[in-house]
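ingest -> validate -> predict -> emit
validate: passed (alphabet ok, no gaps, 171 aa)
predict: started
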Amino acid sequence: MGSSQSTEKLHCNRYLDGHGPPSLLHQANVGVEEICRVSNGSQPQGQMTWVILHRELPGFSDGNTLQINYIFPDGVQTEKHPSPGQPHAGLRLCAYLPDNREGWKVLKQMEKAFNQQMLFTVATNLDGSPVITPTIPLKTNPDHSANTEDGYPDPHYLKTVRQLLKDKGFE
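emit:
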């Protein structure tokens, strides 16, 4: 887990052990509540920051990239989590949005959800381990790949995420 930087790119890796959050496609087909036990307002203490990268995202060739950084330290689960009193591992995660009007709208919605402790939660993954996971799908790969669940291009992502956040009360 971590980041490496070159003059061309900035990458953030997530979950080297393969126990990341459910994919956008899986959430759309099954629903996040059926994948993980999730409690609203159960986000552990963490930090959200963002920067503008001077590079474009695939599918958004006319602008820069918003990189959102999430940092959660190791912690202990509360009564809002699956196993109160038990530890959970921390998380470092980067997500990406295009630096355009829609991207900024989504960023503002994400900030509201994060500040109200509803963007992430501690959940039990399929193997029973506690993980910090987003309650909405995040794009964690800024490069073109065949897997648009984690990366770009994905022409429907911004609209989908805006609707998911709106459904949670964040406009």
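The first helix runs from residue 24 to 30.
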